[in-house]
Write a structure and sequence with these properties.
Strand order of the largest sheet: 1-2-3-4-7-8-9-11
Distance between the termini: 16 Å
Low-confidence stretches: 151-163
Largest sheet: 8 strands, parallel, barrel
CATH superfamily of the largest domain: Luciferase-like domain
Order of helices and strands: EHHEHEHEHHHEEHHEHEHEHHHEHEH
CATH class of the largest domain: Alpha Beta
Helix content: 40-55%
CATH architecture of the largest domain: Alpha-Beta Barrel
Number of strands: 11
Oligomer: single chain
Length: 433
């Protein structure tokens, strides 16, 4: 782990100067002109990040965002496009909400992107917490959006709707259990599709091949002996029935691209990442990340994987840098406060007291702002506690202008990253002694 690997993840926000304009343009998420300008304007960020040596660039997967806060419905198509425009940077999605997807289609799509990028790609996974779209798009699997059962944070709307806290906790537990069951089943299928020449799978929701008991009995190429001659060994049994499937192509990267797994505090999710050697991506403050990192390393060790402190792990941060602390705070007000108030806080995921949305944001532990010296020192202190191998830098482009995103990435790469590299080197030396 020689140095820090920064990733720039775009959370696409359709821009509005204030809430009044966002309301006047409703539904701003369907505004053709704004989306067209945003999707093409992002190219400037992608090319600049590639040239300055940022490790990765990506976006998210979310749907139905009429309010315009996370308009990112087709991330795979975006990554294929960005792969064609770049030379060094890794492209990816952070991440596919697997409990809503056909996992074989995800395995195929990401393998193709991996080839288009000549190996410069990563795959991110998430479990899905936005009920409006997770429940709709995951309906055929029975998926429900999940909230962390341990958080027990409920907004006023939930209480006003007549749910007691006990009722809501029980619902969250049940939804979380169901979501995790489907998610883990889909990830297992995806991994088989990536890594096995042919595979079968038989679970509550999936039979591969279908029907599993008999296999596919009417595949013409098996009747003609073609699959037995040219297909993968074991695909067809002695009676000419398809008993396994071979997903083509295999990824360009062996055995598969790096996999990042988003987590906001669930130790079960982090342990699952350790089991498979995925990169846990902590959407948490530093106080929560430390204990979760211990969960990760222990789970990884139980499955034969040894990771040093921070190795193969990723911290998430939003940073705003200004010539003065006041200028940086103004950037938060201009670019981040709207989505914090009307999405993050409104979802009940972030505690807000006395309608102090700005105070809630700056005290969340996820945002850092100030001069470059102040942001650098704050990150050094956090990396001394937890020297993560990766950092995900989230921005709210196009609410944040592309020039500001590029300026922030450039400042981070030139004036902050070297200091964090030194912290990581020191941690490695200490671990080796």
């Amino acid at each position: 782990m020689p140095e820090l690997k920064p990733m720039s993840i775009i959370y696409p926000v359709m821009p509005a100067k204030d809430e009044a304009e966002r309301a006047a343009l409703r539904p701003i998420g369907r505004n053709r002109d704004l989306y067209h300008a945003a999707i093409h304007g992002a190219i400037d960020i992608v090319k600049a990040a590639d040239e300055m040596g940022i490790w990765g660039i990506g976006t998210i997967e979310h749907h139905f965002w009429s309010e315009g806060y996370e308009v990112a419905p087709a991330p795979g198509a975006i990554q294929a496009y960005w792969a064609a425009l770049t030379k060094r940077i890794n492209v990816g999605v952070l991440g596919y909400v697997m409990a809503t997807h056909n996992p074989i289609r995800v395995a195929e799509e990401t393998a193709v992107i991996n080839h288009l990028a000549r190996g410069r790609s990563f795959v991110g996974l998430a479990r899905g917490y936005q009920s409006r779209w997770t429940n709709v798009m995951g309906q055929h699997f029975g998926t429900r959006a999940t909230k962390s059962p341990s958080a027990a944070v409920y907004n006023a709307a939930t209480q006003a709707a007549g749910f007691s806290q006990a009722t809501q906790v029980e619902k969250d537990l049940n939804d979380d259990k169901l979501n995790r069951e489907i998610f883990e089943d889909h990830v297992e299928i995806m991994l088989k599709a990536w890594t096995q020449e042919s595979f079968d799978h038989n679970s509550k929701r999936w039979q591969v091949p279908y029907p599993y008991e008999t296999g596919v009995t009417d595949w013409p190429l098996a009747r003609a002996g073609v699959t037995q001659k040219f297909g993968a060994p074991g695909e067809v049994d002695a009676d000419g029935n398809t008993r396994r499937v071979a997903v083509a192509p295999a990824p360009y990267t062996r055995p598969h691209p790096p996999v990042f797994l988003s987590g906001s505090g669930s130790p079960e999710t982090i342990a699952f990442a350790g089991k498979h050697g995925f990169v846990p991506t902590y959407f948490t403050n530093i106080q929560s990340a430390g204990p979760l990192a211990d969960v990760y390393r222990k789970a990884a060790a139980q499955h034969g994987r040894a990771f040093g402190p921070g190795q193969n792990q990723c911290m998430v941060r939003w940073i705003e840098i200004g010539r003065t602390r006041e200028e940086a705070l103004q950037r938060i007000k201009d670019y981040d406060l709207d989505i914090w108030k009307n999405f993050y806080a409104a979802m009940g995921r972030r505690k807000v007291e006395n309608d102090d949305y700005l105070g809630s944001l700056v005290n969340s532990g996820l945002f850092l702002y100030g001069t470059v010296d102040e942001v650098r020192q704050a990150l050094i202190e956090q990396w001394r506690v937890f020297p993560a191998e990766y950092i995900t830098l989230i921005n709210h482009y196009a609410q944040t202008p592309s020039a500001v995103v590029i300026e922030t990435l450039d400042t981070f790469q030139r004036e902050i990253k070297p200091a964090l590299d030194e912290v990581i080197h020191a941690a490695n030396r200490q671990a080796a002694e």
